[in-house]
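Subgroup meeting minutes
Present: P.N., E.W., G.H.
Scribe: E.W.

1. P.N. recapped why we're keeping a running log of single-chain structure predictions: easier to compare across weeks, and new members can see raw inputs and outputs side by side.
2. G.H. added today's entry (172 aa).
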Amino acid sequence: MIEKLSQKDIRMLKIGAVCVAAILVFVFASKWLDHWTQARKSLAELQDKLELLDVGKAKQAGLMSIVPAFEMPQKEETQKFLFRDKLNEQLKKAGISSKPLQVVSTVKSPQAGYKLLRLKCSAKCRFGQVLDLLASLKENPYLVGIEEMRIKCDSKKPQEVDLDLTVSTFVR
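Output recorded in log:
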């Protein structure tokens, strides 16, 4: 069959094959070029976001001061003493003298592998001291949350309050 084709026909077939190959290269190259352009655009957006996050030392120190401290949970007995000691220290710093802290319960936490240990604090103090304590609680690296807080005011002495506070921590 090729023998019946003239030189002109063979040349046309070769040019046609080259054109088909060029069309295929163009289609795949344009898709690759679009993908490459989009990837470069995405990279530029991410770099812009990173530049926004790049803050100076002073600003970073200010941001870190408002983030609560946190220590990873330890075994129950160790964590209980660490948490109790730190909470007692914070109570004393706020000027609150409380009854001895009581372990209310240890319950399974929704966080896999951890239990929730609750401590209850009862004290008589001034309202300003309660506010000081609440402001400093974020510095406790073992605190997970405030579970319950009750404040009763005496009608004769409005600045003196009875405080019942239940706080929790994670234990392994």
